[in-house]
Design a protein that fits this description.
The complex is a heterodimer of chains A (283) and B (295). Chain A has two domains: 21-100 and 234-282, Periplasmic binding protein-like II (D-Maltodextrin-Binding Protein, domain 2); 104-225, Periplasmic binding protein-like II (D-Maltodextrin-Binding Protein, domain 2, 3-Layer(aba) Sandwich). Chain A contains eleven helices and eleven strands. Chain A has helices spanning 2-17, 31-44, 57-65, 80-88, 118-126, 152-162, 176-184, 221-225, 245-255, 257-265, 273-282; strands at residues 21-26, 49-55, 71-74, 93-102, 104-107, 115-117, 143-147, 171-173, 189-193, 204-209, 232-240. In chain A, helix 3 packs parallel to helix 4 (80-88). The longest helix of chain A is centred in the first third of the chain and has 16 residues, at 2-17. Chain B is mainly α and 295 residues long. Chain B has a two-stranded antiparallel sheet. In chain B, strand 1 and strand 2 (64-65) form a beta hairpin. Classes of the chains: A alpha/beta (283), B mainly alpha (295). At the A-B interface, helix 3, helix 4, helix 6, strand 8 and helix 7 of A face helix 6 of B.
Chain lengths: 283, 295
């Protein structure tokens, strides 16, 4: 057992030490985006390969905390407990925002409910509102779709919208596309996915409002940009200490105009000025 | 002569080493599970773990580690799988072994065995995209991602195992049994059900046990279609969370040294106990069978 473990650690060390390879792991919301960025980056600098894996934001942050990868993707910010775990391992997590996401609340294609307040949304996911008729829709029970606890989106949505435990009846899906598939097939379904996953259509993207008077859509770039849309969030990458070497070259590419163009092509939003400035301080 | 003896000794030494090695590895894994698993109970009492009805380690408020919804999820989906797979599997095995001949038999058997090695993620995808909407439409329920879907997929996946092993068991029943039955004027149906099946009983029991193992241990396909809400299931159309999918979902994000981390090893130990219990039951059934069955 011990021998096996030491061989495994040795192998892990060798792979991290190999020059020209950057390992990225984490958020499923960011998976397609980071893969596209990695392809474009490797095309421009062929001597560096970037390998990207999913698993969820919790998995990505954990991998940085345990010093297993160079870059951890996370669609939520690091928790204080994770920071203290990292410090205990001698790891100093540093944060870079690479894109902005308007987390979309989605419903079935023919659902007449086009807008919800954050209070209603919270009640729906807390299991207090159980029927669409309570929010101005047809008399149809609501089926909740959400992510699994390893997902940053699961945590972010709980912090921002639910502010309590999720209703136990929520179906916990394994990734954004599975939520889209589930909601597409379910006329009473509601779910939440990154904005990069709604561009193919076939579902209703619900407009949200914090105050109950002005509603905004996550597809509206300016509303996401200036924070009017209540579920706007940056997508992060974490490294151990200020990023250096090949990983730095990759992150710099992501933040460059070419990288930000790919961000938009994938349906997400480019960084605004304050996020760009925050990144500058860590580069 | 002497050389042969040396070779003989050598070979049995190799086998002994192999046997010891597999036992050591198994015990090592067991010790590892126990070693980590018991630490759960410094964070949450054992009784609460065994009787709790809420599994929510990553809670907004206080985390809770209740085994029951997961255990029930595993049991319920496996039970549905076996209800489907046992009769279908044994019937198919009888058909393949007793009625099919020559190249047809070989082809069918090969296909069945090929299906046994089918990647579970593909079956899960089938469940997600094809079966789920179908279930939702047929039963007029909002979502097809539920216990029934998981059970159906697990049944589908344990079917080839059951068929293949049961067919092997039927094939080794001596041909003279069948000839004797025919000589007494029995029809093929009577021969199969009254003579061949009972004679192969212990092998068929083994087939069922292997099918059970396949179903209860399956992770990926179930994870994709079960809905994964850690509810105490009340109907076929409720989402369920199995023990295996819980470990798969949560291991990556749980921090080393956390109660959450250790609780997943405790879950692994529960799975081990489950497998052990079924094996013991099967063994004792087979033993009793051997004593009572005389022909």
């Amino acid at each position: 057992m011990k021998k096996l473990l030491s061989i495994a650690t040795l192998a892990a060390m060798v792979t991290t030490l190999v020059a020209g390879e950057v390992m990225v792991k984490g958020s499923d919301t960011m998976l397609n985006l980071t893969q596209r960025l990695a392809e474009a980056f490797s095309a421009a600098s062929p001597d560096i390969t970037v390998s990207v894996a999913g698993g969820g934001s919790g998995v990505g942050i954990n991998a940085v905390v345990n010093n297993e990868v160079e870059i951890g993707n996370a669609s939520r910010s690091i928790k204080s407990k994770e920071i203290s775990n990292a410090r205990a391992n001698g790891v100093n997590p540093v944060e870079y925002a690479i894109a902005v996401d308007g987390l979309c609340v989605i419903a079935g294609p023919n659902n007449p409910v086009k807008r919800l307040t954050m209070a209603q949304l919270g009640d729906i996911y807390r299991g207090k509102i159980k029927n669409w008729s309570e929010v101005g829709g047809p008399n149809k029970p609501i089926t909740l779709y959400g992510r699994q606890p390893n997902s940053g989106t699961f945590v972010f949505f709980r912090e921002m919208a639910v502010k309590a435990e999720y209703a136990q009846s929520m179906r916990q899906m394994n990734g954004n596309s599975q939520i889209v598939e589930g909601v597409k097939a379910d006329a009473g379904g509601i779910g939440y996915v990154g904005v990069g996953y709604v561009k193919d259509g076939g579902i209703t993207v619900i407009e949200l409002s914090s105050d109950g008077t002005s509603y905004s859509s996550p597809l509206d770039k300016s509303a996401v940009d200036n924070g009017t849309y209540p579920l706007a969030r940056p997508l992060f990458q974490y490294t151990n200490g200020k990023v250096k070497g090949d990983a730095k070259a990759f992150i710099e590419f992501e933040l460059s105009p070419a990288g930000q163009k790919i961000v938009e092509e994938e349906g997400f939003f480019p960084l605004n000025k304050s996020l760009v400035e925050k990144n500058q301080g860590n580069l | 002569m002497r050389l042969r003896k040396v070779a003989d000794r050598g070979v049995s030494a190799v086998f002994l080493v192999n046997a010891v090695l597999s036992a050591v590895v198994l015990l090592g894994i067991l010790a590892f599970l126990l070693f980590y698993g018991v630490r759960t109970f410094s964070g949450t009492p054992l009784l609460k773990f065994l009787t709790g009805t809420v599994w929510n380690p990553d809670a907004y408020g206080e985390p809770s580690y209740g085994l029951l919804p997961l255990l029930l999820g595993s049991f319920a989906s496996t039970a549905i799988a076996l209800i489907i797979a046992i009769p279908l599997g044994i019937a198919s095995a009888v058909f393949i072994s007793e009625r099919l001949k020559g190249w047809v038999r070989v082809t069918v058997k090969t296909l069945v065995e090929l299906f046994a090695g089918f990647p579970s993620v593909v079956i899960g995808f089938f469940g997600l995209v094809v079966l789920a909407p179908l279930i939702a439409r047929i039963f007029n329920v909002p979502s097809g991602l539920n216990l029934l879907n998981a059970g159906l997929l697990l049944g589908l996946m344990s079917l080839p195992t059951i068929i293949s092993v049961a067919d092997d068991a039927l094939r080794v029943v001596p041909h003279s049994y069948r000839e004797a039955a025919y000589a007494l004027g029995a029809t093929p149906w009577t021969t199969a059900t009254r003579i061949v099946l009972p004679a192969a009983r212990s092998g068929i029991l083994a087939a069922v046990m292997l099918g059970f193992g396949r179903a209860v241990g399956e992770t990926m396909a179930v994870l994709m279609v079960a809905g994964n809400a850690a509810l105490m299931p009340k109907s076929l159309f409720d989402p369920v969370r199995t023990i295996t999918s819980t470990i798969a979902i949560e291991l990556g994000e749980s921090a080393f040294g956390d109660t959450h981390f250790y609780s997943l090893f405790a879950l692994g130990f529960v799975l081990f106990l489950l497998a052990l219990a079924t094996n013991l039951v099967a063994e004792s059934l087979i033993k009793r069978e051997k004593r009572s069955f005389t022909l």
